[in-house]
Amino acid sequence: MKILAIGNSFSQDAMTYMEDIAESCGRTDIIAANLYIGGCPLTKHAENLKTDELEYDYQIRGKGLYKTSIHAALLSDDWDVITMQQVSGDSGLYDTYHPYIDYVYAEVKRLCPNAKVLLHRTWAYEEKSGHGRFADYNRDRDTMDRMIEETFQKISAEFGLDMIPCGNVVTAIKKTMPEFDIENGGASLYRDRFHMGNCYGRYVVACVWLKKVCGVDISKATFIPNEAYPPLIKKLNEFVANYEF
Questions:
Q1: Strands 116-120 and 81-84
Q2: pLDDT digit string (tens) for 11-34?
Q3: Which of 38, 40, 106, 170 has minimal Cβ neighbours within 10 Å of its Cβ?
């Protein structure tokens, strides 16, 4: 199964462990490729489709292999799934999506008509995040999460596209698992209060992608990220495996 993300650092977070986890479940058929420009918004993706500049790192397992254009990447393989997303600071601001997502979606379907297109529903920043764009959401995590959800629901309905619910799962974990309640001494899913952390956050969102996009039975996973505490990984795995999308 071949997956291409038209993304940024948040899709890098999601894809870094995907193939490792999949292989530990016995799935060696999954290729998870990320078109990476840090902090890339839909405006930039749309512009790059028009100019065909070699601005993207073509990433596998979170590592850049070579520079490419979005057009070349779309035509480089017979993709089964292609994902779209907005830059994190704009993710809950509906007016930032149009007309850019319309153009990106139209070009994806023109160049890869057989690919299934999905929306990567990203996550809100962590409490007390110092990210400059957090001010657009009154520096409140619940507000940001609600605005992202409302925006993605609208975009999903407009295009008839399903979502990969990473942000929903991250919020559910933070609200129901004391082990990840940072206000009361729990571990953080983040590494800098907005990107997913190498130990736990990236593991969670990779599991969400594998379950939602690839139909992987992630309960079989044996992969554990470096420096992660295995009992916590086990609990996170069970949470995602039992989460109803």
A1: parallel
A2: 999 999 999 999 999 999 999 999
A3: 38
